[in-house]
Design goal:
Strand content: 35-45%
Number of domains: 1
CATH topology: Alpha-Beta Plaits
Mean pLDDT: 97
Radius of gyration: 13 Å
Structural class: alpha+beta
Number of strands: 4
Distance between the termini: 6 Å
Strand order of the largest sheet: 2-3-1-4
Low-confidence stretches: none
Length: 93
């Protein structure tokens, strides 16, 4: 199983809920995507990100397929426009 975690700090915080809804809509649409959830930060500290994506995939191949899937690619411009910074970690368990 692959875990894919992404955190964004947003320059346009008004888009946080829209991004959350769009990303959560990917559940059930992409083969090999087991779980995807989005969290919005409430601590509002200097060190915190604004949004976190936590997802699980059946395999590395499933993660690659997710990244190139049209439903996922359609959301990228929205997130790219709103983000100030992005960090991610992919790991296998």
């Amino acid at each position: 199983m692959i875990k894919h975690i992404v955190m964004w700090k947003l320059k346009d915080k008004e888009k946080a809920l829209i991004i959350k809804d769009k990303l959560e809509s990917l559940n059930g649409k992409i083969p090999g995507l087991i779980k995807l959830e989005i969290g919005l930060d409430f601590s509002k500290t200097q060190e915190s990100a604004d949004i976190v994506l936590y997802s699980e995939f059946e395999s590395r191949e499933a993660l690659l397929n997710y990244q190139s899937h049209p439903e996922h690619k359609a959301i990228i411009p929205l997130v790219s426009e709103a983000k100030e910074e992005r960090r991610m970690v992919d790991y296998e368990i």
